[in-house]
Design brief:
Length: 221
Protein backbone atom coordinates (compact mmCIF):
# COMPACT_ATOMS: atom_id res chain seq x y z
CA UNK A 1 0.00 0.00 0.00
CA UNK A 2 1.17 3.55 -0.69
CA UNK A 3 2.14 5.93 2.08
CA UNK A 4 -0.81 8.09 1.08
CA UNK A 5 -3.24 5.23 1.67
CA UNK A 6 -1.65 4.38 5.01
CA UNK A 7 -1.89 7.99 6.19
CA UNK A 8 -5.48 8.22 4.95
CA UNK A 9 -6.84 5.15 6.76
CA UNK A 10 -5.06 6.19 9.97
CA UNK A 11 -7.33 9.24 10.05
CA UNK A 12 -10.68 7.61 9.28
CA UNK A 13 -11.78 7.23 12.90
CA UNK A 14 -11.33 10.96 13.53
CA UNK A 15 -13.21 11.83 10.35
CA UNK A 16 -16.12 9.55 11.24
CA UNK A 17 -16.27 11.02 14.74
CA UNK A 18 -16.57 14.49 13.19
CA UNK A 19 -19.00 13.36 10.48
CA UNK A 20 -21.08 10.41 11.81
CA UNK A 21 -23.04 10.23 8.54
CA UNK A 22 -19.89 8.82 6.94
CA UNK A 23 -18.65 5.29 7.48
CA UNK A 24 -15.70 3.16 6.57
CA UNK A 25 -16.35 0.66 3.77
CA UNK A 26 -14.13 -1.49 1.58
CA UNK A 27 -14.13 -1.03 -2.20
CA UNK A 28 -11.81 -3.05 -4.43
CA UNK A 29 -9.88 -4.15 -1.36
CA UNK A 30 -9.29 -0.63 -0.04
CA UNK A 31 -10.93 1.29 2.77
CA UNK A 32 -12.78 4.47 1.85
CA UNK A 33 -15.27 6.84 3.46
CA UNK A 34 -18.81 6.61 2.16
CA UNK A 35 -22.06 8.21 3.23
CA UNK A 36 -24.08 11.41 3.25
CA UNK A 37 -22.87 14.98 3.58
CA UNK A 38 -25.50 17.65 4.15
CA UNK A 39 -25.20 21.18 2.83
CA UNK A 40 -26.41 23.56 5.56
CA UNK A 41 -25.75 27.29 5.37
CA UNK A 42 -24.69 29.58 8.22
CA UNK A 43 -28.35 30.38 8.95
CA UNK A 44 -29.20 26.71 9.44
CA UNK A 45 -31.02 26.31 6.13
CA UNK A 46 -30.74 22.80 4.73
CA UNK A 47 -30.02 22.93 1.00
CA UNK A 48 -29.17 19.39 -0.12
CA UNK A 49 -27.82 15.98 0.84
CA UNK A 50 -25.07 14.40 -1.21
CA UNK A 51 -24.02 10.77 -1.33
CA UNK A 52 -20.25 10.78 -1.53
CA UNK A 53 -17.20 8.59 -1.49
CA UNK A 54 -13.82 9.82 -0.31
CA UNK A 55 -10.81 7.80 -1.39
CA UNK A 56 -7.13 8.01 -0.52
CA UNK A 57 -4.93 9.80 -3.01
CA UNK A 58 -1.41 8.63 -3.76
CA UNK A 59 0.31 11.61 -2.12
CA UNK A 60 -2.06 12.33 0.78
CA UNK A 61 -1.64 14.39 2.99
CA UNK A 62 0.42 16.47 0.54
CA UNK A 63 -2.59 16.47 -1.79
CA UNK A 64 -6.34 16.23 -1.31
CA UNK A 65 -8.08 12.86 -1.04
CA UNK A 66 -10.35 12.04 -3.99
CA UNK A 67 -14.01 13.06 -3.73
CA UNK A 68 -16.78 11.39 -5.72
CA UNK A 69 -20.43 12.44 -5.81
CA UNK A 70 -22.17 9.17 -6.60
CA UNK A 71 -25.84 9.97 -7.37
CA UNK A 72 -25.21 12.33 -10.31
CA UNK A 73 -26.68 15.40 -8.68
CA UNK A 74 -23.65 17.24 -10.07
CA UNK A 75 -23.28 16.95 -13.88
CA UNK A 76 -20.19 14.91 -14.69
CA UNK A 77 -18.57 17.50 -16.94
CA UNK A 78 -15.67 19.90 -16.59
CA UNK A 79 -17.93 22.95 -16.55
CA UNK A 80 -19.24 21.67 -13.20
CA UNK A 81 -15.73 21.04 -11.89
CA UNK A 82 -15.68 17.29 -12.38
CA UNK A 83 -12.70 15.54 -13.94
CA UNK A 84 -14.29 13.77 -16.89
CA UNK A 85 -11.63 11.04 -17.03
CA UNK A 86 -11.90 9.92 -13.40
CA UNK A 87 -15.28 11.50 -12.45
CA UNK A 88 -13.68 12.79 -9.24
CA UNK A 89 -14.53 16.29 -8.09
CA UNK A 90 -12.20 19.20 -8.84
CA UNK A 91 -12.49 20.81 -5.42
CA UNK A 92 -9.87 23.49 -6.12
CA UNK A 93 -7.51 24.36 -8.94
CA UNK A 94 -4.19 22.55 -8.57
CA UNK A 95 -1.98 25.42 -7.38
CA UNK A 96 -4.51 26.25 -4.65
CA UNK A 97 -4.46 22.61 -3.57
CA UNK A 98 -0.66 22.50 -3.51
CA UNK A 99 -0.45 25.61 -1.34
CA UNK A 100 -3.20 24.38 1.00
CA UNK A 101 -1.50 21.01 1.45
CA UNK A 102 2.08 22.26 1.78
CA UNK A 103 2.06 21.53 5.50
CA UNK A 104 -0.29 18.57 5.08
CA UNK A 105 -4.05 18.29 5.48
CA UNK A 106 -6.20 15.97 7.59
CA UNK A 107 -9.22 14.10 6.26
CA UNK A 108 -11.44 15.93 8.74
CA UNK A 109 -10.16 19.38 7.71
CA UNK A 110 -10.47 18.42 4.05
CA UNK A 111 -14.15 17.64 4.51
CA UNK A 112 -14.90 20.68 6.66
CA UNK A 113 -12.83 23.28 4.88
CA UNK A 114 -12.85 22.07 1.28
CA UNK A 115 -15.57 19.51 0.52
CA UNK A 116 -18.52 21.20 2.23
CA UNK A 117 -17.82 24.64 0.65
CA UNK A 118 -17.42 22.91 -2.73
CA UNK A 119 -20.75 21.12 -2.34
CA UNK A 120 -22.46 24.31 -1.21
CA UNK A 121 -21.12 26.19 -4.20
CA UNK A 122 -22.34 23.44 -6.53
CA UNK A 123 -25.74 23.41 -4.83
CA UNK A 124 -26.11 27.16 -5.10
CA UNK A 125 -25.40 26.99 -8.81
CA UNK A 126 -28.01 24.25 -9.26
CA UNK A 127 -30.65 26.12 -7.25
CA UNK A 128 -29.87 29.79 -7.95
CA UNK A 129 -27.94 29.53 -11.20
CA UNK A 130 -24.53 30.80 -10.11
CA UNK A 131 -21.62 30.05 -7.80
CA UNK A 132 -22.04 32.16 -4.67
CA UNK A 133 -18.40 31.81 -3.58
CA UNK A 134 -17.01 32.55 -7.03
CA UNK A 135 -14.98 30.12 -9.06
CA UNK A 136 -11.98 29.65 -11.25
CA UNK A 137 -12.60 27.97 -14.59
CA UNK A 138 -11.90 24.28 -14.98
CA UNK A 139 -8.55 23.13 -16.30
CA UNK A 140 -5.65 25.27 -17.52
CA UNK A 141 -7.81 28.38 -17.83
CA UNK A 142 -8.63 28.20 -14.13
CA UNK A 143 -4.97 27.69 -13.25
CA UNK A 144 -4.14 30.84 -15.22
CA UNK A 145 -6.95 32.76 -13.50
CA UNK A 146 -5.55 31.76 -10.11
CA UNK A 147 -2.05 32.99 -10.90
CA UNK A 148 -3.32 36.19 -12.52
CA UNK A 149 -5.39 36.84 -9.42
CA UNK A 150 -2.51 36.26 -6.99
CA UNK A 151 -0.11 38.31 -9.11
CA UNK A 152 -2.67 41.05 -9.88
CA UNK A 153 -1.79 40.97 -13.57
CA UNK A 154 -5.33 41.29 -14.91
CA UNK A 155 -5.58 39.92 -18.45
CA UNK A 156 -1.87 40.26 -19.20
CA UNK A 157 -0.96 36.65 -19.91
CA UNK A 158 2.67 37.40 -20.85
CA UNK A 159 3.24 39.32 -17.62
CA UNK A 160 1.64 36.54 -15.59
CA UNK A 161 3.95 33.94 -17.14
CA UNK A 162 6.98 36.21 -16.75
CA UNK A 163 6.36 36.69 -13.04
CA UNK A 164 5.68 32.99 -12.52
CA UNK A 165 8.98 32.12 -14.15
CA UNK A 166 10.85 34.70 -12.07
CA UNK A 167 9.43 33.28 -8.85
CA UNK A 168 10.25 29.73 -9.93
CA UNK A 169 13.95 30.30 -10.54
CA UNK A 170 14.99 33.28 -8.40
CA UNK A 171 15.69 33.76 -4.73
CA UNK A 172 13.55 36.13 -2.71
CA UNK A 173 14.42 39.73 -3.54
CA UNK A 174 15.65 42.09 -0.86
CA UNK A 175 12.71 43.77 0.81
CA UNK A 176 14.02 47.24 -0.07
CA UNK A 177 14.72 46.46 -3.73
CA UNK A 178 12.39 47.47 -6.52
CA UNK A 179 9.78 44.83 -7.28
CA UNK A 180 10.61 42.28 -9.94
CA UNK A 181 7.32 43.06 -11.72
CA UNK A 182 8.81 46.26 -13.15
CA UNK A 183 6.84 48.75 -11.10
CA UNK A 184 8.89 51.42 -9.38
CA UNK A 185 7.63 50.19 -6.03
CA UNK A 186 9.56 48.45 -3.28
CA UNK A 187 9.22 44.68 -3.31
CA UNK A 188 7.85 44.69 0.23
CA UNK A 189 4.98 46.94 -0.87
CA UNK A 190 4.25 45.15 -4.13
CA UNK A 191 4.61 41.41 -4.88
CA UNK A 192 6.18 40.24 -1.61
CA UNK A 193 3.10 38.31 -0.43
CA UNK A 194 2.48 36.86 -3.89
CA UNK A 195 6.11 35.74 -4.11
CA UNK A 196 5.98 34.07 -0.71
CA UNK A 197 2.73 32.27 -1.50
CA UNK A 198 3.78 31.00 -4.93
CA UNK A 199 7.21 29.99 -3.67
CA UNK A 200 5.38 27.25 -1.75
CA UNK A 201 4.88 25.55 -5.13
CA UNK A 202 7.84 23.48 -6.32
CA UNK A 203 9.92 25.15 -9.01
CA UNK A 204 9.26 22.40 -11.54
CA UNK A 205 5.49 22.56 -11.00
CA UNK A 206 5.39 26.34 -11.27
CA UNK A 207 7.40 26.21 -14.50
CA UNK A 208 5.12 23.49 -15.86
CA UNK A 209 2.04 25.58 -15.11
CA UNK A 210 3.64 28.56 -16.86
CA UNK A 211 4.44 26.37 -19.87
CA UNK A 212 0.91 24.95 -20.01
CA UNK A 213 -0.62 28.43 -19.83
CA UNK A 214 1.64 29.66 -22.62
CA UNK A 215 0.81 26.64 -24.76
CA UNK A 216 -2.95 26.87 -24.15
CA UNK A 217 -3.03 30.58 -25.01
CA UNK A 218 -0.92 30.26 -28.15
CA UNK A 219 2.17 31.98 -26.76
CA UNK A 220 4.13 28.79 -27.21
CA UNK A 221 3.73 26.38 -30.12
Amino acid sequence: MSNGYTAFIAQLDNAIAAFPSLDRVVVDGKKILKGILSVIDKNGRHWEDYSVEIHASENFPSEFPLLFEILDKIPKIGDWHIYEDSLSCCVKVKPEEIIRCKAGITVTDYIQEEVLPYLFNQTHRRVEGYYINGEYSHGTKGIYEFYADILATGNDIKQTIKLMQFIAINDRPNRTSSCFCGNKIKFRHCHRDAYDKLKLIDKEVLQLHAYNIAKATGLYC
